[in-house]
Amino acid sequence: MKAAPEAQKRLLDLADLDSVVDRLAHRRRTLPELVEIDEQSKRYAKLVTDVIEAETQAGDLARDQAKAENDVEAVRSRADRDQKRLDSGAVSSPRDLASLQSEIASLQKRQGDLEEVVLEIMERREAADTKVVDLVAQRDEIAATRAAAEDRRDALLAEIDKEAGEVQAQRAAVVGDIPADLLTLYTKLKDQYSVGAAMLRGGRCQGCKVALSIAEMNRIKAAPHDEVLRCEECRRILVRTPESGL
Asked: Does the predicted model carry a pTM greater than 0.70?
């Protein structure tokens, strides 16, 4: 392939710009904020589930408490009715009196047992409500932390995209100075080796950093100035400049 020396040198400018583009793309993919947001999102999702479970448990205990309190009230009401009946003197039969007194005593014991149940449920409900409050606070804190990380990410991405846009504009100007066939070769090599062209400096390819043999240097010296050369080691386009040591 043939190309004017100046067009070949523009490949070095293009390679430098492509290196910046690649660096910006890598930076965009590897922002620490992306890892942080992912981790916070996982924690947030778990806390959302934990909050739902805790709220469900607290709700169940609230219903259990209400039912137990209703049971206590029902037993108390029945005991009160029996006590009023006993106090009224309406029951005169010794057998009926004994039966009524026994029932009142049984109801009072039942009421005491139910009140113990209510107290136990109240304690469990209080603990469950406290757990809900704590988990909601953790969930909201994680949400705020994630939102802050997202704001930082967005600001950094905007900065990166702005710089990338400027570099792409510069790249477009350089591409305009390079013949189509040379650009096609460069692009193919860049896709294969990440860098499509390298300078020959002091007898060493700057792409693979390998020093060329004397025979290879003599071959390059003898080559026409417009011949497009390739490094024998890394196969990148080898661009000659005054620093090549020829």
From this structure: yes
Average pLDDT on 164-183 reads 97
Instruction: For the chain, give the percent of residues with pLDDT over 90.
Output: 88
What CA–CA distance (Å, rounded) separates 18 from 28?
A: 15
Q: What is the pLDDT of residue 91?
A: 76
Q: Which helix (H) or strand (E) holds 237?
A: strand 237-240
Is the pLDDT at 87 greater than 90, yes or no? no
Q: State the Rg of the chain over Cα.
A: 42
| Angle CA 136–137–141, to nearest 5 | 115
Q: Which two tokens stand for residue 110?
A: 């039942």
Query: For residue 153, what are the CA distances in angstroms to 29, 44, 102, 145, 150?
Result: 11, 18, 76, 12, 5
CA distance 54 to 130: 10
Please tell me the distance from the alpha carbon of residue 62 to that of residue 19, in angstroms, as a whole number.
Answer: 64
DSSP 8-class letter at 31? -
Six-digit token pair at 136?
A: 């909601």
Both ends of the chain: CA-CA distance in Å? Answer: 21
CB 3: neighbour CB atoms within 10 A?
Answer: 21
| CB atoms closer than 10 angstroms to residue 183 | 20
- Which residue, among 176, 178, 171, has the nearest Cα to 8 in the 3D structure? 178
Average pLDDT over residues 35-61: 97
